[in-house]
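Before going further, it is useful to explain how the protein records used in this thesis are read. An example of such a record is reproduced below.

***
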Amino acid sequence: MLKARQISILSLVLLTAGIWAYLLGPTANYVHYYSAIEDLTLQIPRFVVAHTDSNVTVTMLFNVSNPTSYMGLRLASVSYQALIQNKLMGTAGTGPPVPISLEPFSAKTLIGTFVMTGAKMDQYDTLFAQSGGAPQWHVRGTMSIWGRDGFLTPEFDIPVTASST
């Protein structure tokens, strides 16, 4: 038969083991926080330029991915500038109405669009003609990511190839 003291010690050991097991998951997740921030990736798999008589519309897909096991990052927005030969063609931002969770080993897609008219459209037409119909675009900007330390804004600068419609 167990004595009161042995029951107390056994209860304390079981309580300690239970708390340790309960905290193991969040603690293990916490360890991956900085590598998750470091490994976040943003890609632009689609960049389309549509030219009409009255405007030029540029549409792009942003894929933001969390290639780690970390849970707790949320994607708030992507702010960007699109440039040809370091000449600003357009600037905009895109994002969900509220930050969305970047689950472990997952990606979220956002659509960005801007429209050029008037002088900006004329500048694009000139650069398009000078490049032989294949201007060198690049998109730079920041992602707004909500993490345990508040908002983080990693930067990106990605060369892209446009397809026309």
Observations:
- The first helix runs from residue 4 to 31.
